[in-house]
Amino acid sequence: MMRKGKRIGLLGGTFDPIHSGHLIAAEQARDQMKLDEVWLMPTKIPPHKTRTDIADEQHRLRMTELAAADHPYFRVSDMELHREGPSYTVDTMRAIRQMFPHDEFLFIIGGDMVEMLPKWHRFEELRTIVHFIGLARSGAQYNQEAVSSYVTFVEMPAIDISSTMIRQRVRAGISIRYLVPDAVERYIKEHRLYESFG
What is the mean predicted confidence (pLDDT) over 123-133? Predict the structure, then answer.
């Protein structure tokens, strides 16, 4: 008997570090789209990145695992970290669909990324493989009708947190409590991440 597939949301990111905004986005997508799981996928750092303070991928993976540990429907995938060469979403999705043919995958992106989607690598193929969940910021205007065939929007509370801000706060010795999960804050302190300027 063929097993019933799951509806799984994918949220990719550098997660340098993962923060409460990422987790709230994942939870809002899970709840509003009735997803069975959300997979958090740390991405490889592109070779052209010029920042010198980027945390090692094993640190970023471990922080993501710590952040997801207490949520029964969050999973962490390190698949992107093992891929060689440029990491394109279309290739990731093809690989995932081959590994999990019975599951339905939805790719979670910020609302501000929606208008850029048609410029993504091999987008016409990508839109046949995966549907997108757009995180709609309160008060922002989106042409939902124009993208309705490949994007479903969910309401996202306005959370003004970024990984850049957290790194800057760590360097300046300013508290990041509640901006990241407690376990992530402890990990950053224990490994002295982001303390030096890049």
Answer: 95
What would the pLDDT profile of 47-62 be if each residue is shown by its tens digit? 556 666 789 999 999 9
Per-residue confidence (pLDDT) for residue 178, from 0 to 100 = 97
Q: Give residue 56's region: left, alpha or beta (phi > 0; psi -120 to 50).
A: beta
What does the H/E/C string look like for the chain? CCCCCCEEEEEEECCCCCCHHHHHHHHHHHHHCCCCEEEEEECCCCCCCCCCCCCCHHHHHHHHHHHHCCCCCEEECCHHHHCCCCCCHHHHHHHHHHHCCCCEEEEEEEHHHHHHHHHCCCHHHHHHHCEEEEEEECCCCCCHHHHCCCEEEEEECCCCCCHHHHHHHHHHCCCCECCECHHHHHHHHHCCCCCCCC
Q: 37-42 and 131-137: which strand pairing?
A: unpaired
Peptide bond into 17 cis (omega under 30): yes
What fold characterizes domain 7-190? Rossmann fold (3.40.50)
Query: What pLDDT, on the 0 to 100 scale, is given for residue 152?
Result: 95
Residue with token string 């509370």: 157
Question: Residue type at 108?
Answer: I
- Given a cut of 70, whether residue 46 has pLDDT beyond it is no
CA 150/CA 114 separation, integer angstroms: 10
The whole-model pTM stands at 0.91
